[in-house]
Amino acid sequence: MGGYLDAVKDVSIELHQGRVLAVVGESGSGKSTLAKLLAGREIPSTGHVELAGSAITVKSKRRFKEYKRVVQMIFQDPFASLNPVHTIRYHLERPIKIHQHLHGQELQAQLDDLMEQVRLTPSSRYLSKYPHELSGGQRQRVSIARALAAKPMVLLADEPVSMLDVSIRLEILALLDDLRSRLGLAVLYITHDIASARYLADEIVVMYAGQVVERGTAEEVTQIPSHPYTQLLIRSSPDPDSIAVNRSQHLNILTPTSSGARTNIGCPFAVRCPLVTDICMESYPPTTEVGGAHFANCWNLEIKTTQSDRASVTHFGIHEGGTVEI
Hints:
Layout: E1 13-15, E2 20-24, H1 31-39, E3 49-51, E4 54-56, H2 61-70, E5 71-74, H3 88-100, H4 104-117, H5 136-148, E6 154-158, H6 166-183, E7 186-191, H7 194-200, E8 203-208, E9 211-217, H8 218-223, H9 228-236, H10 243-248, H11 278-282, E10 287-291, E11 294-297, E12 316-319, E13 323-325
Parallel strand pairs: 2-7, 2-8, 3-13, 5-6, 6-7
Antiparallel strand pairs: 1-12, 3-4, 8-9, 9-11, 10-11, 12-13
Keywords: ATP-binding, Nucleotide-binding, Transport
GO biological process, one term: peptide transport
GO molecular function: ATP binding; ATP hydrolysis activity
């Protein structure tokens, strides 16, 4: 049979200090692969990772350790990401010793500070416990504290609230929002829930079948979705604010019969799109400006403006061909 599948193809993103970029899409869209590339857990077949304008390779153990100090990841499952045989103290002490080289009273002071940052106080109540003794929300707070222990510049949050009770998801999102503002962190927020992306993110990138189909400010993408796939995500969202948008759309996007189907030519969403035309099957649509800093890849867009309003300074991103820059 042969052939290969591009998990992420021609993606270009940028992260800025003190801001949140949300990458939204269904399972199989390439979101987690993108996060793994940024975390150095996967090596891109083409393109490269950049940190502060310099190309990064994390093949050596020492270089990977240095990179992890700057770029930390928060995983989806707060129980699986914590070792059940170790206490919370162990989970937090280890990265502090590795990255900050603290011991004794300084180590304890840092532990207390981390627990306060994630609002698990008093710290003495939690440090001696094991992961199974905490709730899902508390375990995720510990995971966030562990990431902060390295004093990173970048947090990669891969579906950090999807496995939590609905009642505490907003609390964790509010915590991430507070940390990015207070610590000046650049945050990549991976999610399938465009409503939570609108709540937390400054900018949203929508991915489908490994490619970017729409991007722009959170307000523009959620209130004026241009790509048919983004409109599908909005229709599926429980966000009450999206009701007006949903009712104003006359596009009838049917339940997909070929979820995430990928082709090497044409638009990857063509097999599900009600607006599909011959050109959609033959050629991938170019990136088109649909208003200000709002862009989409679709052959059937209504162009609202042609005036460019792109941001000029980047601190972290993946550029075309798979390049990542911090």
